[in-house]
Amino acid sequence: MKPARSEKKLVQPHSWAQLKNGQWVNESIQTRLDEWCPKLFGYHMLKLGGLSCELTSCNCNIQHQVNLDIHNPLHNVIADGYDLPFLEKSFDTVILAHQLDYCNDPHRMLREVDRVMIDDGYLILTGFNPLSFTGLASFMPWRKNNLPWSGRMFTTSRIKDWLGILNYQVVACDQYGLFPMQTHRTCWTWLENSIGDWATPMGSLYFIVARKRTYPLKPIKPHWKLKRKLTPVGVNYKVSSKSNCTKS
Hints:
- The protein has 7 helices and 6 strands; from the N terminus they run H-E-H-E-E-H-E-H-H-E-H-E-H.
- The chain has helices at residues 22-36, 50-53, 106-116, 133-136, 156-165, 185-195, 232-247; strands spanning 44-48, 64-68, 91-97, 117-128, 168-176, 205-212.
């Protein structure tokens, strides 16, 4: 397993137009985000990265939304994702669209996001699946230096492990896009639906919704034990022993 931290300088996309089939990827994420927006409540939402800034959330109950990026013109805050200029527990929801795929230290970014997240807040993550046709294409020499294959893709199980360490509960995980082809998309979608759920782990994209918990997900058992009560068996044993002594 490759380490999460990379010394290689990664080119981070700031617009969906930079990615191959980026429009379709954007639309697929937007469809799932529209389903979750009415379920999100609070006062402040953070969209981290240029790809997150281009996602719309007009039907969300959270009115104050912050777009943070350096190059995307839709930003309203310019800052580094590793050092967010916000106080602790400031946001009710944070959206990370394909940010872990193109950052050198995903652990550091998740810890920084966790710092500004309130208790029981929602974290929405999207990214590419390395165990898919898109992930396998990154091994081709003429593609590995081009977007989106130049990023570092992580499996959903690994993302869930990182979230579990930070005490996040994954409430939804959707893997889709077995055939991420933009041309003749209707035919490919019909073929993907006809295959069934068995091919879900090979989906090219994942959409994860996790919630920050303030209590341990696994309860710790107490070390102390209750004393055993006196049972009728023990009383009968003592009485029988006394009667034997009297007879002797």
